[in-house]
Amino acid sequence: MNVQAPFFQTGATVAYGGPESRSPLSFRWYDKDRIVRGKRMEDHLRFAVCYWHSLCWPGGDPFGGETFLRPWQHGDDAMAMARAKADVAFELFRLLDVPFFTFHDVDAAPEGATLKESVANLNAIADLFEQKMASAKVRLLWGTANLFSHRRYMAGAATNPDPDVFTYAAGQVRAALEVTHRLGGQNYVLWGGREGYETLLNTDMKRELDQLGRFVSLVVEHKHKIGFKGPLLIEPKPKEPTKHQYDFDVATCYGFLRRYDLLDDVKLNIEQNHAILAGHSFQHEIMLAQALGVFGSLDINRGDDLLGWDTDQFAMNVPELVLAFHEILKGGGFTTGGLNFDAKIRRQSIDPDDLLHAHVGSMDACARALIAADEMLEAGALTAPLAQRYAGWDGEEGRAILAGRRSLAALADRAVEGGLDPQPRSGRQEYLESVVNRYV
């Protein structure tokens, strides 16, 4: 196949066509210049195309090989293939008119025979990215290093029993962080796909957690040394590929960051598919991250309710997304974070333009959800009943309890001597569910 031939059938940038549009390559809801809560829709959603699933995944699964047969994945010259892939990537960014992209080091550039060669390859492709970005709209939301695919990381990277693997991983992360900084990345992600265990029979959990804490601390130190201003992001995930991962969910990550004094520099990148695997909802993880002050960014995808693994499908479930965006807007929206399409087209979606259809459909779903979430907030559809439910805690006595101005004995005396007999009130769950349905 000719890597120089046009990959996509269209050359026209996808544009807003309005709710009545029937063009498969136009936006019905995503009007990037529409003002929502005083800000352009594009600036609210901050869409990013991910390099790996969109351009590197060949369409394989545990029972079958590649189905996409993309030209840049077949050739003798790995760097030439990487450059061809970059050409298609930036064409995809242009067609979708997205403001951001994201990448792993080894997906952007091929691994060499040595770490030195791998770093040189990454910097060469970073030079190419820099050239392309000079005349393109797209910017870098975040970069990261792949510390999970190579066999050297089968027992983890930072948590590996071999300190040489820890050291090798440090070399990869330094290179990826410095490239991210050079390209103006707004965040840097640490995804610990293998930082966990398969069995406790060969695992010293305390030792491995200390190693992981030290590794992240080293990255924080280097971030400040080179002047990188964005936050580091850890991506919670409970399992797969390991049976149990140390970044299980938002609550676990918060405990880890607090234990190793990392809260000032590290936030979380949350994903729907990971939330479900951890036994939570997407809304739960976002709400908790906001409550704990560690909300950073989102991978926007979804899982399959009938399958128990990370299917990474494009987010199309508007009712679910409405509740997610309701939490995001309540918290003030993104700062350096955004919506990264960490999503795969299905292995039967073999036409190049299927990549465009997937992104357009999901961008529209997010835009429609954002509009509905804004309308709910404007009407106080959920916030007003919530405030009413907790109104007692905003009163004089409730504030005194939380401020520490009441002892246990004082509270007990008030309950006993005052003859308190509080009666339960309805949680109104079904009513609130019907309220949400008015907007979706």
TrEMBL record:
One of its GO terms (biological process) is D-xylose metabolic process. Keywords: Carbohydrate metabolism, Cytoplasm, Isomerase, Magnesium, Metal-binding, Xylose metabolism. GO terms for molecular function: magnesium ion binding; xylose isomerase activity. Its cofactor is Mg(2+). It is found in: Cytoplasm. Its main location: cytoplasm. Binds 2 magnesium ions per subunit. One of its GO terms (cellular component) is cytoplasm. Mg(2+) 1 binds at residues 235, 271, 299, 342. The active site is at 104, 107. Its EC number is 5.3.1.5. Mg(2+) 2 binds at residues 271, 274, 310, 312. It catalyses: alpha-D-xylose = alpha-D-xylulofuranose. NCBIfam families: PRK05474.1, xylose_isom_A. PANTHER family: PTHR48408, XYLOSE ISOMERASE. HAMAP family: Xylose_isom_A. This is Xylose isomerase. The gene is xylA.
